[in-house]
Amino acid sequence: MRIARIETWKVRVPMKPDTVNSPEFDPQDAVLSAFWNVPKFIVRLTTDDGIVGIGETGRGCPEEHVKACAAVVEGKDPRQMNLQALEIPRNAAYGCFEMAIFDIVGKHLGVPACKLLGQQVRDKVLVDYWTGRRTPQDLARKAREGKERGFHGIKIKCALEDPNVERIRAVAEAVGAGFKITVDPNERFYHPAHAIQLADALGELRQWVAVFEDPVPKRNFDWYVLLRQKLQVPVAMHLGDPMSVFNAVKREAVDFLNISPGSMSMFVKCCFIAEQAGVP
Fold first, then answer.
1. Sign of the alpha-carbon dihedral angle for 21, 60, 56, 44
2. pTM for this structure?
3. DSSP bridge partners of 153
């Protein structure tokens, strides 16, 4: 068996209207407002005996990364490849080609991809509703919409300068108890003191907050250790490589982890580290 044909498509995947920001925040948040327009690639690998594997890059993957991986895998036998560490460039397209190769090998063996990674551990994945930066009134509307659709929480994007206390109060009044908010400023609370001041200002509204995710720059683990000591809400970090996960749990810098390394096998390795440390 050899990979005999490689096809790629550059695509833009639109988002439904009213998904991201309130109009008032679009001028301030041009990246988030237009990120859906950033292209990605779909890759199809076909073997000489007709097995097809499909992969997908993340948004913004450079085309040269796709070409570099394609040049390496063409003519290779997927059965002979180390699925846990493919000998292809570790660039933004790695996960896409990993996905397609797992697809081929799984079809050849007659097993799902989870069998190549270890074992299936659940048949459902909990998902929160999601939105960008919104006015308090608009966020309350989106939270009601999410709850009516059966979601138990909502993840929101924000920044320090936004009306965050008013937002969380509006959600609490709109949907009541049991509906949690993941507050994700993408490091835009800037400094631990700002995050602590916001949590203090929330008062009893803190019960509606699931976590502050990436509240301050992640390059400074000392700040996250401090936040776990002082912050009155749980703190999460969004990390993508085993060493970062190892350092986060070793330093006791997080209550929760959001792990997304762009590779299935790397994801499992990161999860093993978190599991041994007892970090959800």
1. positive
2. 0.90
3. 180
